[in-house]
Amino acid sequence: MQTIAGLIDHTLLKPDATSQQVERLCAEACEHGFRTVCVNPCYVPLATKRLHCADVGVCTVIGFPLGATLTLTKVRAVHAAAKAGADELDMVMNIGWLKGGEAQAVREDIEAVVEASADRPVKVIIETCLLTDEEKETATRLVVDAGAAFVKTSTGFSSGGATIEDVRLLARVADGRIGVKASGGIRDLAAAKRMVEAGATRLGTSAGVSIAREEQTESKED
Question: How many CB atoms within 10 Å of residue 2?
Fold first, then answer.
């Protein structure tokens, strides 16, 4: 049976994150059986070294948090992250290009990252809080067409995070062709369950430990 904990990318992307905090993140991920730890690129080597459990992967971010870097820069970041041991990549879509109607440029940007990933799962953050519903639909279709593995709601660094309505919209458009990662503002087990019920197949949160403990307590009570 799939647990909520097993869907979580245990996340630490703060600019002031320290090596000690990353080491603790890795220990927590192994203890609770999270899907990955998600860390800034400079900590990929450390996370790869400190994760002693086979079932937890290392995820990192590309073009984070704005998505407005050159495609070549994103591609080089992917190569460096892969060489350092990253298993999964969360890239930020070029939001300005999407809103400006440059759909082909958006698709090519994503395609370049997917190609560089060498079959590592790529999740594309579309920053739903900055988009209209029509733009969210367009973005999701572009993510599907570009060959990415997931569409992801949010960086957690903009004006809003994941909402139930947005997860439902993304899941409807994705239609099972790719996964949906809900991220931003998921702080407890109830919120995590609502996201999964709405169609999320992966969860990004920095509150993974408290969510996992809630789930363990609930399981014991049942």
Answer: 8
* Number of domains into which the chain is organized: 1
Domain limits at 75? 5-221
| Four-residue CA torsion sign, 129, 131, 137, 143 | negative
The residues assigned a catalytic role are 90, 152, 181
Q: Round to whole Å and give the CA distance between 80 and 211.
A: 32
Segment 138-157, tens digit of pLDDT = 999 999 999 999 999 999 99
> SS3 breakdown of the chain: % helix, strand, coil, rounded to 5?
50, 15, 35
CATH number at residue 144: 3.20.20.70
pTM: predicted TM-score of the whole model, two decimal places: 0.97
Quickly count: other Cβ atoms within 10 Å of residue 132's Cβ. 10
- Cα–Cα distance between 171 and 198 in angstroms, integer? 8
